[in-house]
Give the backbone structure.
Amino acid sequence: MPEQFEVFRYQVTRPGAPPETRYSLSPVKPNRYAGRDEPQGATPQENAAGSTGEPVPAGVVEAPDGTTPASIDPPVLDIPGRGRVELHAILGVSDGSADDLGHLVRWRPRG
């Protein structure tokens, strides 16, 4: 039986910028997203923290037995015999390719 990991989607909004969709393995609302929200500029006004929306279920990732989370946010899995795999390419939300992982990891989006 493969391991299954629920993936959650949420929005980060900042003043003057378009909303950014992010993904996590945790349903808990993130706080500062591992520091990636700052610094934005050289003045305190430009360093306004982004606001995050509530995480919603986006789907399930299936991976081989023994797979464990290496990072919750951003979502990274540690796959036995393969190493760490960043899920953004598997989810199809980055420029990366996950073609060589198709036999190991399956993405089942919520429809």
